[in-house]
Amino acid sequence: MKGDRVGDLARDEILAELVAFANADGGTLVLGLHETKGEPRVADRLETLPHCEALALRLVDAAEDVVEPRLPLLMAQGVVADATGAGYVVLRAAKSHNGPHRLRTTREFYVRRGERAAKMDVREIKDLTLSLARFGDSIERMFAEREAASDAWWQRTQAISTAGNKAPIQVRATAVPLVAHQVAYLTSRPELWWRGQPFKITIDGQEMRSTYPSLDYAQDPKPRLRSLTLAPDSQERQRFFHRVLRSDGLIEFFLSHARYEKGGSDYGSDIYFDWIAQLIAGTLCQIEHLRKHTGSDNLPYGIELELRGLNGCRVFLYGENKFATHGATDAEYKTLLPRLTVGSRSEFDTLLSTFLLDISNACGRHWQNAVTAPWDALLPRGA
């Protein structure tokens, strides 16, 4: 490598290591850290690389061009060590569910063996392909299980609804790890529960503060079978918010409004963007909090959002009806939005905006507003 330029040979050596991590259990590569030649290898000395931040960007671009299929979660960061911009590059590749991966340039598949990247043989490629296919089926089963649970609650919600001015609605955000993951002794580890707080989101430059459903975020979870859960006190509640964190890494935030009695609060079939944004933001925060506290900060997640209601659904912004009614009058509707992959924390605003765009599209309109949330306040570095 010369400066922030990467020769073809050096590029392929670096990317082979990242592919090997992705085809195995994930890992971290530090450029500028030299190791001893003996076994086991240990850190020997540091040597800064010029223009490390530009080099990190070039390597990410190279991975996009050279690795196939594309690595689903690759993080690169330049760590500046002096005033000239020299420093080190930290590259992190998550275990991938999209593999096996290979380099287009060498046409080789790589996997981590011990402390080095090694070429995979035909049997290893076949075994990994079958293993990933089986786990892909298990991911679909997890999402299907939560959809079925949502369907069951929807039936109960209608059963407890009373005559009122609005119809019931449900909003569900479910996040599933995209690689096999287990959290040991979860029910005795309340520190893994993201407690959260009411917060403001910014939509189109305007701050919006909502304490609902955020007021429930900080409550103490109850242990359930291999899970921590915040659940309603009674099925007779007209309005409730619940959360779940399971030992297999599944995370869910769920909001339900049953029909309100006449003269009651004017909720029901109307959904407000700040509710949805806070539900999604809370889910993302729980994902990041769990990653940090289990040492799996490059663990990829898939997230699914479901909207459900009767008599159509009006989506409100700034207290005004901005979008057309979703669904036919007097008809039940259920919308499963396209799933998104949760990458690094730097992508959270993009994910939030994309989900709201999808909701807007489902209502027959186009969303053009950027959405941001105070991630540094919601996920403080020392917490």
Describe, in plain words, how this protein is organized in 3D.
This protein is of the alpha+beta class and 383 residues long. It folds into two domains: 113 residues, Schlafen, AAA domain (Methyltransferase, Cobalt-precorrin-4 Transmethylase, Domain 2, 2-Layer Sandwich), CATH 3.30.950.30; 240 residues, no CATH class. It is built from six helices and 23 strands. Helix 4 runs antiparallel to helix 5. The two termini are 38 Å apart. About 2% of the residues have low confidence.
Mean pLDDT: 82
Structural class: alpha+beta
| Distance between the ends | 38 Å
Low-confidence stretches: 261-268
Strand coverage percent: 25-35%
Shape: globular
Could you tell me the radius of gyration in angstroms? 23 Å
**Share in helix:** 25-40%
Count every helix, treating DSSP H or I runs of 4 or more residues as helices. Answer: 6
Give the count of structural domains: 2
| Total E-strand runs | 23
**Largest beta sheet, briefly?**
8 strands, antiparallel
From N to C, what is the helix and strand string? HEEEHEEEEEEHEEEEEEEEHEEEEEHEH
Describe this protein with a few key phrases.
single chain; 383 residues; alpha+beta; Methyltransferase, Cobalt-precorrin-4 Transmethylase, Domain 2; 2 domains; eight-stranded antiparallel beta sheet; three-stranded antiparallel beta sheet
